[in-house]
Amino acid sequence: MTAIYMYHAVGNALQTVGADPYYAVTSDNFTAQISQIPESIPLAYQVLQSVGVKDHCITFDDGHISNFSIAFPILLEKSLFAEFYVNTSTIGKKGYMSWQHLTDMVKSGMSIQSHGHNHFYFSDLSDKEIYSELETSKKMIEDKLGCDVVVFAPPGGRFDSRVVKISKDLGYMCIASSIPGTVIKVKDFILPRFAVLSTTPNGKIFDWQRNFSYATNIERVRYHSFRLAKKVLGNHRYDDLRSKILGGNGEKSA
After folding, report:
1. Which residues, at least 6 apart from 164, have a Cβ–Cβ distance to it below 8 Å?
2. Nearest to 89 by CA among 81, 77, 97, 101
3. pLDDT tens, 58-106?
4. In the CATH scheme, what is the code of domain 4-220?
């Protein structure tokens, strides 16, 4: 089965400053984890070939600087090609990758795609705001890097039917969601991803490549439990509670 993995920051506490520690993976764990992935082909490359998503893919959300300084060299060493979802409003700011970093990664076979212009929860936005966020980020990346932007990863995994429709209207070919699971239908517009946490055991990376494994089913239960909590509490109250419990950055919860 095909699995898509979602990372955020990679490195030690100093190297991942500014990132949510809940999602920060050490470089040793990252190396051990991706060593279990036989290949990684960016989703954009797969969908542009019109054959659907049939290969595993390593992805990164938020554009943290550690993606370039720590994860990128490890990926190159392993001959794996990842997809990076960036917020165009933060590119070049402290703690985030610059346009030059992104250019260097594209030249090495990596894919840069949209995480929106800002790190907003898209389900909270108006139709006009959704359109602006998706259009702005797509145009900026395409103009600066010269690559096709056809994949959108919703910040915090929050999206609704309006986001699906508007992204399709703008030429996006799929949404990389936060819904756990393996890819069943290779041409689905909404694709599942497994969120790799700081506490994720390395062995789960391989286990997640099987659709009905115990590890995969546990992730589905976990996701739906959190989804219910978000629905009952609302995005902002959920994030406030999460920050108090975990001490992390609630704005970047998946």
Report:
1. 175, 189, 190
2. 97
3. 999 999 999 999 999 999 999 999 999 999 999 999 999 999 999 999 9
4. 3.20.20.370
